[in-house]
UniProtKB/TrEMBL annotation:
Gene Ontology biological-process annotations: peptide transport; transmembrane transport
Protein name: ATP-binding cassette domain-containing protein
Key words of the record: ATP-binding, Nucleotide-binding, Transport
Species the sequence originates in: Robertmurraya kyonggiensis
Family: Belongs to the ABC transporter superfamily.
Residue ranges occupied by any ABC transporter domain in the UniProt entry: 5-250
Classification via NCBIfam families: oligo_HPY
Length: 332
């Protein structure tokens, strides 16, 4: 497996005033392999969107590194950064807000190509727009219409076509289906999968709900209050979640088959997410964790690879042997 993107101890803090700092992303590390979909999941305010925006270079980082294709995203000069934009694109949650209402679909999709001087021949560029519309399940008749003439799902398709215009390798999709009707969500996920196969794309797929990332992700990282708390393959995360927060998120997903009796215990998380301005000492999850121990308030749990390719930050797994039989069993 080839690493396309490596995030090393990434921090993004916003200073709100002289004395208050919002630690939106507070030290996350992970790698994304070429051709995979890496999901990041967490409740709103956990820092997942900020992480995405910092990774793609829309925000400067406070600390840490983002290495894309062997280059540090945040130490590129202007020209290199401009070149890198071709390879890294972003899709947003609200397609309507991200499309200029006064531009036609043709203009919206052409713009990145114009900016980067691709397809300078107007006819060729128009052909390219038509091709992109077809790639995303729209057609050339749509080219001269305006965003408001489309449904939410169609607008997201337009956003995807625009992201594809520069032929990128890597796309960050920030909650691309959260604002869509449930019936449309699966269609957009299927489209993203089809495009991934056809074009060899790598995705970072951000969502607030585990059921949304499950369909598309090869691996999933779970974020809480600016930190990654667990990271492993999708199947492993569903079969053998380790972190108490992941268990709580999973227990909230209904079992789809009505013939299977749902024997799981619902884990209700008490209280709200603490403020990232004044996060808890030690483990950031401790104020809502049913298993919190004394040590959890004093010591920040280490990010450890407990089993191969299964990372977790939780004191319950301290001193656990690296083997298939993973330590303390917690009833779900
Ligand atoms: Fe809960 Fe402690 Fe693990 Fe944090 S480190 S998740 S408080 S048991
Ligand atoms: Mg967000």
């Amino acid at each position: 497996k080839q690493v396309l993107l490596e995030v090393k101890n990434l921090k993004k803090h916003f200073s709100l005033s002289r004395k208050t700092t919002l630690k939106a992303v507070d030290g996350v590390s992970f790698q994304i392999y070429q051709g995979e979909t890496f999901g990041i999941v967490g409740e709103s305010g956990c820092g997942k969107s900020t992480a995405g925006r910092t990774i793609i270079g829309l925000y400067d980082q406070t600390e840490g590194e983002v290495i894309f294709n062997g280059k540090d995203v945040h130490s590129l000069n202007k020209h290199e950064k401009f070149q890198m934009q071709k390879k890294m694109q972003m899709i947003f949650q609200d397609p309507y807000a991200s499309l200029n209402p006064r531009s036609t679909v043709r203009e919206i999709i052409s713009e990145p190509m114009e900016v980067h001087g691709l397809y300078p021949n107007k006819l060729e560029r128009l052909e390219r727009v038509y091709q992109l519309l077809e790639d995303v399940g729209l057609n050339r008749e749509h080219a001269n219409r305006y965003p408001h003439e489309f449904s939410g799902g169609q607008r997201q398709r337009i956003g995807i076509a625009r992201a594809l215009a520069l032929d990128p390798d890597f796309i960050i999709a920030d909650e691309p289906i959260s604002a869509l009707d449930v019936s449309v969500q699966a269609q957009v996920v299927n489209l993203l999968k089809k495009l991934q196969d056809e074009k060899g794309l790598t995705y970072l797929f951000i969502a607030h709900d585990l059921s949304m990332v499950k369909q598309i992700s090869n691996r999933i990282g779970v974020m809480y209050l600016g930190h990654l708390v667990e990271l492993t393959s999708s199947s492993q995360l569903y079969k053998n979640p380790l972190h108490p927060y992941t268990k709580a998120l999973l227990s909230a997903i209904p079992i789809p088959d009505p013939d299977i009796e749902d024997k799981r215990e619902r884990i209700i998380l008490e209280g709200d997410i603490p403020s990232p301005i004044d996060p808890p000492s030690g483990c950031v999850f401790r104020t809502r964790c049913a298993h919190a121990m004394d040590v959890c308030a004093r010591v920040k749990p280490e990010w450890q690879e407990i089993v191969k390719e299964h990372f977790v930050a939780c004191h319950l797994y301290n001193g656990v042997e690296t083997s298939e039989s993973v330590g303390p069993k917690i009833n779900m």
